[in-house]
Amino acid sequence: MSTGSNALPPSLSEAALRFQHAATEIIDSYEAQHADEENQITPAQLAEGVDQFLSTITRIDQVEGESGPIRKEDPTKIGDYGMSLLTDLGAWAVQLNLAVPRQDLEIVTLAAADWVVRHEGQIHALEPVVNALANFANRMHETSLLEPLTLFMGRVAQASSSAIKQDLEKNNPIRPWRILHLNRGIMATRTHNPALMERVFDDLVRYLPEDAPTFFAEGMQQMEALNYPQPVRQIMGRYFDRWTRPRMH
Prior knowledge:
- This protein is an all-alpha fold.
- Helix content is about 70%, strand content about 0%.
- The N and C termini lie far apart (about 60 Å).
């Protein structure tokens, strides 16, 4: 059963608790259905790896502090390793149709991404982080979490690898880099914070110039439909005018 708070980003202690619940349920379900299967990596093996990963990053925080570069180890490599294990274990949760353990593992994924960000590493596997952020946002009811979520999305974008930032798959509309910035733009709008909106919209225009006109046009429609406050409308209107109006040559 899912437990704990909805703090964002999640703490490592919260992640460890979520992981224990998820791993127990996934392993029990797997063993009940696949007891005789061999020649594949089992959820129990993956869970052991995730447990070691969480122990390692917790120990590093205790020894090295919770932010800044790490002297002896590479946060990027450690993060890649943990994300890979979490993705594989999450795939078992999907295959076994276990919704709550899947959600719990997404919280662990967000805590792992935060650890990489805090230690100035790079995120290479962006898709599981973006999916976890989107699903967290869809389940979120507390408006007080809108700003922390928007800011965390920005830190994830900043920590994404240089290859991801080059955005070479522009023909793929579901690429994680695009989804991250569009979702961040939506979250920023929902905060009703004009200064935060401007910062996020500037990033969106910079990283997704092809998507900006449609984003701001749809944003203007939402302003009317949902009766947003005037300061929010003014920000959206300014970006709409700048990016969708025909320009004089």
